Amino acid sequence: MVWLPLFAVCLLAAGCRTRLEDTYGQRAGAEKSVNGTRVLGEMFEKAGHRVLSWGRLSPRLENRADCIVWFPDNFNPPSDETAEWLESWLDAAPGRVLIYVGRDFDAACWYWDKIEPAVPPESREHFEEYRRRAQWDFKSRRIGLPPQQTGCWFDIDRSLPQRSVRTLSGKRDWLEGIDPTKLDIELRARLVPPDNTEILLESEGDMLVGRQAIGKSRLILVANGSFLLNLPLVNHEHRKLAGKLIDAVGPEEKTVVFLETGEGGPSIVDNDPTSIAPTGVEIFNIWPTNWILLHLAVVGILFCFWRFPIFGLATPGKQDRLSDFGKHLDAVAGLLKQSGDEEYARGRVKHYLQKIKPSE
After folding, report:
1. CATH top-level class of 37-105+145-263
2. What pTM was estimated for this model as a whole?
């Protein structure tokens, strides 16, 4: 993470004109966001999967997706309608995977805390302003959340204090090659899964990654995005864990869809919007615009016929004769006039009459 101090200096040196991008849970259109998912999407692509982004629960998503990755920008569990749609999608075909990542983490706050030692004294005031703003934005969204909530796939426990993960336990393939002391995972709210959940990775009894069977498909729960979002993935140990999550999807090529939703959750639609690009001629089917444009088009065509065509045989234009000495006199007179010197002009005319004219 050597680049963090360098980026901090550049950002703070720019003053308030530069803003840290922190759009949450978006892959497309938020490539530079610290809370984005572009890096994770690229890791899926390098593993041989086809990666798309989607914004709603629709028939096309139901038919195309083999794996859905969802980073909801919502601190509450999924609604019953959303959970029912996703469970129906999982149950419709074998081998499908839904990866749900809890929301209770913000990489913008994490970023400002990490760069604090590298902030120069002259930028301290700007730094504190940025950090306070990021912390308030995050905390204000958590105000009023109950200590416990019950959901379809898990419960949420917010009564426990925030802590950093320094120990790991779980499945051997998830622990292999991971150094827990180098992790930077943060836990605030805990996802408490039901008893039928297979715990893949945990820390001191807190689930980090769990798996549930739904029909012949799988639901993978991740506590939060503190090792999967763009900025946390600069940590090499986090990238290893992200790689293990990708391996859990399966070795065969799949169509992986990142479900990108706002605070209200995904909308559920019965029909997908048409993918045909507009050509512009559709406006001719809208009244009264179609009649207005039609009359304007007729007037324009008539104007073109009146203004531009040449009717009949072309005639040669009038041409000046190069032997016309009068043109020479007019040119010399024009030059003398441009000089603005009347005495000089009279002198030249007198010179012509005395020296050149008699010899003719």
Report:
1. alpha beta
2. 0.73
